[in-house]
Amino acid sequence: MGYEIDLGRAGDKPGMMDLTELLATRLLVQGNSGSGKSHLLRRLLEQSAGLVQQAIIDPEGDFVTLAERYGHVVIEADGNEAELLRIAARVREHRVSVVLSLEGLDAEDQMRAAAAFLGGLFDADRSLWYPMLVVVDEAQLFAPAAAGEVSDEARRLSLGAMTNLMCRGRKRGLAGIIATQRLAKLAKNVAAEASNFLMGRTFLDIDMARAADLLGLDRRGAEMFRDLARGHFVGLGPALSKRPLPIAIGPTVTESRNAAPDLLPLPTMGEEARALIMTASAEEEARPLPAPRPKPVRAPGPDVLVQLANYRPPVRDDLPEEEPMDPAEREAAMAEILASVLADSDAAACTPATLYQDFTVRCRIRRIGGEAMGLPEFKRRLAVARAGVQGATAEGPGWERAQEIAAGLPEDLAGLFLLIARTALEGSPCPSDAALAEAYGTSSAGRARRMLGYLEERGAIVMRRDLRGAPIIAVPDLDAETGPQIGAAAVLPLRRRRP
């Protein structure tokens, strides 16, 4: 036998919902703030109050007014998760309808409290698996699609409890009814388990598209959600209708404590208005002011990698002080360490940050004293080292100009450009794909070739081919170009130039 509850009007007919079918298939409600979601949930709860046990997860305290008229027990959550687990077990045992009010808790505590309570309902003994409507208002708070400001642990607990409710709750008699302002903010694996939908007014394209997709409407049909009036929804599902059905939600007996107030005229005060707000009354003087919560101020500090590199263990008094290293000796030692870092077989595929960590560790092993080299300076030296410049080329004015050009390029392209500049200044053959990839810090030759195209767009280089089709790269600002690439013709991405 089915039980139908009256949601309102569907055209000239009553908008009915099959309660028995709802218990087996779950419900999802979407609508922007002010669209009437809470009013819809209140109407549904009032119409079914005498037919089935109910539990409401209420983040704003909107539904506590159900207690006086329909006998719901209001549970004021105080952050005691163990107690909420025991209360939830007793709720299922004694079949009492309840409202879990989370008003007054911050976002993370709300998530933890909801997770504990839903977990208690879910873990009840098999003999207590009676039918129950579990309504979760503002469900995007408890099953967010992306990480937010709360801790990962709180999000994991809350999302797991919501997933259990919507995915596995049916066998335990739990019928999830979730309402959200935005489908895009709700975890997909939670929303996907609902088979009944009531979609209200919404304006964002992504939410309209998802709502239309759930209701089987085309893109033109999605535009209707912008025009829905407050308290009007489009329903679809086995408990509602086999086709999208517009429903105007009917009135409710109880009201929310947080209902929007009517407009009232402002009081006329005149000159005394300033005195009223700037002068404390005797009652205010006697009442202690709450201490403001201090805001953590984080002073900007040096790069984390530099902090790690500069760390030194506490100096023991019984050890002799180390003599300062000669600057020239220190510079030679760091150059030797950098060369050893680049000599590793996997250095070509490592990022500059990874190589920097290796470099700083080796400096500490060699006991290189003084201030550690910063990451930007390391990247500059790394680019020069990967270019392999030496001898007369390193001392000439062309190389100095090449370094000035490299300084104006993105950091990851400096090494690639300097390699090309060095070969162009020397007149050496164009570097191979493998050499270009290593200079860029990748193992992908295709990625290195794409970066050559980017350098050409910036005007830093010009690529052409000789009569045999071998690539040549010119650097206009240096008035130099490489020789033809040896053994690999027609591999660089040359563009067809317009006449």
Description:
Helix 5 runs parallel beside helix 6. The chain is an alpha/beta fold. Strands 2-1-11-10-9-3-8-7-4-6-5 form an eleven-stranded mixed sheet. The protein has a three-stranded antiparallel sheet with strand order 12-13-14, with helices on one face. Strand 1 (4-10) and strand 2 form a beta hairpin. The protein has two domains: 4-249, Rossmann fold; 374-481, Arc Repressor Mutant, subunit A (Orthogonal Bundle). It is built from 21 helices and 14 strands. Residues 16-78 form the Helicase HerA central domain. It comes from Methylorubrum extorquens DSM 13060. Pfam families: DUF87. This is Helicase HerA central domain-containing protein.
Question: Concise description?
Answer:
Residues 16-78 form the Helicase HerA central domain. With 499 residues, the chain is of the alpha/beta class. It has helices at 19-25, 37-48, 66-70, 81-94, 107-122, 152-168, 188-191, 205-215, 219-222, 224-227, 272-278, 282-286, 304-310, 327-343, 352-365, 375-387, 392-395, 397-407, 411-426, 433-440, 445-457, and strands spanning 4-10, 13-18, 27-30, 53-58, 73-76, 98-101, 132-136, 174-180, 196-199, 232-237, 241-249, 462-465, 471-475, 480-481.
